[in-house]
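# nightly structure sweep
# worker-07 picked up a monomer target from the shared queue
# config: single-sequence mode, recycle default, output format = structure tokens
# input follows
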Amino acid sequence: MSKSDIWSLGSLLYEMITNENLFNYYNFIYIKIYEKNELLNELINKKIKTRFKELKYFFNFFFQFDLKKRKDIYEIYQESVKIYNFYSNKLKNKEKILKKHNFNMN
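# output follows
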């Protein structure tokens, strides 16, 4: 998988999570011309709530203008497993709390 595919994958994941396009014609051209990571981070932060900071960090794997800094698919896979485990454990802990207080899960 090429580094440009990694960028596209990041865009696709963002759209799947937020149900919105990350880029429109105007901000994409601006970002591309000026290589503005700050604007990218602002767009992502606006949609991804602070409680999902792991996802915000994860998007940095995809959206790097310097190809040497952009992660490869193996690194992305490793990080996605970490994120999955993090949120899975978080849900399990909340489930335990609910069961402890006799809340019906169904």
